[in-house]
Amino acid sequence: MRVLLVEDDQMLGSAVVQALQDVSYAVDWVSDGVQASGALEQHDFELILLDLGLPNRDGLEVLRRLRASGDATPVLIITARDTVDDRIEGLDIGADDYLGKPFAVGELLARLRALGRRQGGAATSVLTNGLMSLELASKLARVDGVEYALSNREFALLQALMMRPGAVLSRTQLEQKIYGWGEEVESNAVAVIIHGLRRKLGADRIRNVRGLGWMVERNDARAGEERSR
Ligand code: CA
Predict the structure, then answer these.
(1) How far is the CA of 12 from the centre of ligand 1 (A)?
(2) pTM beyond 0.70
(3) How many Å lie between the centroid of ligand 1 and the Cα of residue 93?
(4) Which of 5, 15, 57, 169 has the highest CB neighbour number within 10 Å of its CB?
(5) Can you tell me the distance from the alpha carbon of 169 to that of 152, in angstroms, rounded to the nearest whole number?
């Protein structure tokens, strides 16, 4: 899952980047408001972490422009500007959640998981598809009752596919979901991660659509029953 972090405090910014990368988010970090608007115009993100007090353009203005452009990407405001009025204004402009500084990393991660779930249209912290499920907090995959531990990249990639069952995602789309800017990506990286996932979970869990990319087939419980009849 790809996150844009907008934060001008260098120490806090690098700590947040590290914490998010540790749990397998792809993170891009900008430290002023104009850069933030530029990044949001040019790239697709799945979550935005937005500080309010920023050089060049205030965070609330960044948010206002984003929503005015029709972009509904979930936004979590992180700020020390912690008056009730600021919170109300941020939420009214279209923020999805609000976290006052200083915050505990564990709470930040839990709020991001909640926003990511909402965005994926899932009400729970488990993505399920037929016999396969993926637990978002523990990063455990289960196939037919057997648990598999996944690496960060494996988790990020499987999550991207399972959030859109039935959709074919290209190599480029998958790279964008699992790598941030400036992270070196080998040309065969996605194929290698897919290979590892198929070896762990079973080759038929992830389908290769030749020339286009990969998909997890839409596979609800009823379809599974029919097939086994
Ligand atoms: Ca700031």
Answers:
(1) 10
(2) yes
(3) 19
(4) 5
(5) 19
Which amino acid type is present at position 128? T
Radius of gyration of the chain (CA): 19
Give the residue carrying structure tokens 């289960």.
142
Q: What's the CA gap between 165 and 132, in Å, rounded?
A: 12
> Which amino acid type is present at position 114?
A
Phi, psi of 59 (to 5 degrees): -60, -40
Distance 133 CA to ligand 1 centre (A): 39
Per residue in 128-145, pLDDT tens? Answer: 888 899 988 888 999 998
Contact 169, 215 (CB under 8 A): yes
- The single-letter code of the amino acid at 57 is R
For 177-215, how does the pLDDT look when each residue is reduced to its tens digit (9 = 90+)? 898 887 888 889 999 999 999 999 999 999 999 999 999
User: From the CA of 55, how far away is ligand 1's center (Å)?
Assistant: 8
CB neighbourhood size of 137 (10 A): 11
Q: Half-sphere exposure (CA, 13 Å, Cβ side) for 65? A: 14
Contact (CB, 8 A) for 123 and 145: no
